[in-house]
Amino acid sequence: xxxxxxxxxxxxxxxxxxxxxxxxxxxxxxxxxxxxxxxxxxxxxxxxxxxxxxxxxxxxxxxxxxxxxxxxxxxxxxxxxxxxxxxxxxxxxxxxxxxxxxxxxxxxxxxxxxxxxxxxxxxxxxxxxxxxxxxxxxxxxxxxxxxxxxxxxxxxxxxxxxxxxxxxxxxxxxxxxxxxxxxxxxxxxxxxxxxxxxxxxxx
Length: 203
Prior knowledge:
Low-confidence stretches: none
Distance between the termini: 54 Å
Helix content: under 10%
Strand content: over 45%
Number of helices: 1
């Protein structure tokens, strides 16, 4: 199901590590990384923007093993895809070591956004549905011994955000996020609700 990642990986020039844009040398080890911005794609009402590929190579002097990471966009800067008022985005990342996969993380979301402008007042309403998945192998102390365990997270969420501005003097934003997270370790499904209200006055 993840075979498309191989195609994305092939777009990264691995010789970029010979002269990387970012090189960090510390007492812990050496980390080289680089990223490549991809051109936007727009055909009629369809657009795909904010795309980027990145990779890093981490060579620790002590402790954890050598690791190689690859990402298609990031959580902080996901890709954006829109068709009319329907849009979405996401990201994907993976970290590999000589022992195998250490971490995989991905998210996809889709929804609609509508903007309104009445001259003296303008605003927008955004409704997004999304899913987030991560799988990570970490080392924990169990009965006094270091053992490798797998931590898995699966979350689905609904985010509704409304914004209103009146002559630029008063701005208000209301964001509601509902999420359901399944904990594989405990077998529990946990629901959360967050409501954030922000009001800004010119003075």
